[in-house]
Design a protein that fits this description.
Layout (H helix, E strand, L loop, with lengths): L12 E7 L4 E9 L4 E8 L4 E4 L6 H12 L2
Antiparallel strand pairs: 1-2, 2-3, 3-4
């Protein structure tokens, strides 16, 4: 599987992570809770980013879409 560079999420902080399966983790990263800038990303067990979303303005939608994508 291809990995994604770590760049592009500077200033974002991890607010939650969900174990999807034995090898993948869904992480929700937030830049500004007040403004709602957030992204989701799926990583493998060694922390390599497998997939990342564009920036969302709504934390709930970001989490929903991330879970939907990770569980497919």
């Amino acid at each position: 599987m291809m990995s994604i560079e770590q760049g592009g999420v500077e200033g974002f902080e991890l607010v939650c992570s969900v174990q999807v399966d034995g090898n993948r983790l869904l992480k929700l990263l937030v830049n500004d809770v007040v403004l709602g800038d957030c992204v989701w990303q799926v990583t493998n067990a060694s922390g390599q980013v497998l997939e990342r979303s564009e920036i969302y303005q709504d934390l709930a939608h970001c989490l929903r879409d991330g879970l939907n994508k990770a569980l497919k």
